[in-house]
Sequence to fold (259 residues):
Amino acid sequence: MSSNGLKFTVLGSGTSSGVPTVSCKCPTCISTDKRDKRLRTSLLVQSETTNVVIDTTPDFRQQMLLYNIDRLDAVVFTHAHFDHIGGLDDLRAYNYTTKKAVRIFANLQTIERIKRTFFYIFEEPEQIGGGIPILDINIIDEAPFTIGDITFEPLPLLHGKMPVLGFRIGNLAYCTDTNFIPETTIDKMQGLEILILDALRYEPHSTHFNLNKAIEVSQKINARKTYFIHIAHQILHSQCEKELPEGFYLTYDGLTLYT
Ligand SMILES: [Zn+2]
Ligand SMILES: [Zn+2]
Ligand SMILES: [Zn+2]
Fold:
């Protein structure tokens, strides 16, 4: 069991509406810079033998096709907001190719909310023929769990009033959708090479860190490098990255990181 030698790919770096935002003509939404094209936030975690995706965004199908993810060992969920679960139905594709259930890992609250949003997956079928994803549900709490040879340590966070999970995977921590990290979680984030953290926009927000707050919290965590994610259209990549302190970066779709 090891979490060394892992590859991480940012499958989406955008906030819930994606960037460009439909019908918006702001400088970021009309930018031709590829780094300003943001699918909904998701991360691919890969070892030599194991592929895990964190969250199934509404862009999940497109993300799996873009990054040639032909094999998926499991999905791990942070929370049940639609921008993190909307692509769940497209897990069917892996049922077809493997003839097996897809393993999903989430805490009880997230599973219960997934069952409400995707009610038809969990009810007696009304008729034969409608395809539904076949899932192998694994309920997690705060204890570390292992998928293949990759160990995930849950990191409890607050997203407004809602408890959500980040994950520590070896020397990388992934904390999207949060505006508060409890001290007990910060204790679990010592000695990080890489922190990927929510930073929505410049202005404050009630459920997400803004850039200044994200920088302040990151300095306390003190990872070697910090990358911001879940980025809204108020942030133009080329302009914002020039303003960041040393060791701080913006993620962008397709960014790969190694530990
Ligand atoms: Zn989100
Ligand atoms: Zn815009
Ligand atoms: Zn959210």
Remarks:
- The helical segments are 60-66, 82-85, 92-98, 108-117, 119-122, 183-186, 211-221, 237-243.
- The two ends are 15 Å apart (CA to CA).
- The chain has one domain: 7-251.
